[in-house]
């Protein structure tokens, strides 16, 4: 969707409470802009942020640790992709908008299901094979169903005082009628170290989620996009670039063979 469109139907939203998160949001948006120069990006924040890299900057109605739901609820787009501020978009994500023409919502499953957060008990007796969805990359199509889900998601988070929103979303998806599509892991890689064991038979990562590397108390240069080499090291960054060079869906050549970085866990 071109930036000059006055009434875009597709776009990205980010949300930031506090100065540090606002800096991270701007850096994440600059990185997204490198991958998708013409995309539409809005920010919801309690900080004074120039539009600059954004197409719209909107004041938050509620300043708290989880403004995500407000950004989804107030999004002006028919099809919205929400991004956390600690994600690095490496590729055009337009195909997620295409998914949202057939499904209400989409995201990537949590992989660390035996971690403390992954073991949070369900309020609705949800089976383990229906894990939490990581909230760092979410696609949502505007409808009465999705608005109801987002409203209830936010209401329960406020009422319970929970410190994480993912268990609540899991329950709502299990008990509700929202048509949800599970994206493959490359659209929200939550452990970049796993990529050391990927060879060119695996799809290249589209989005890296580097929460452990990007913190609001040390957000870096607001005028700079995220630098992959600095954040994860040159060796891993080069491996990711090699994987992308072998993936035809991001412009690579499938004849380009890339071995795994690590031989500790053979891939057969």
From TrEMBL:
SUPFAM superfamilies: Nucleotide-diphospho-sugar transferases. InterPro entries: Nucl-diP-sugar_transferase, Nucleotide-diphossugar_trans. Residues 245-268 are annotated as: Disordered. This is Nucleotide-diphospho-sugar transferase domain-containing protein. It comes from Pararhizobium mangrovi. It holds the Pfam family Nucleotid_trans. Residues 80-188 form the Nucleotide-diphospho-sugar transferase domain.
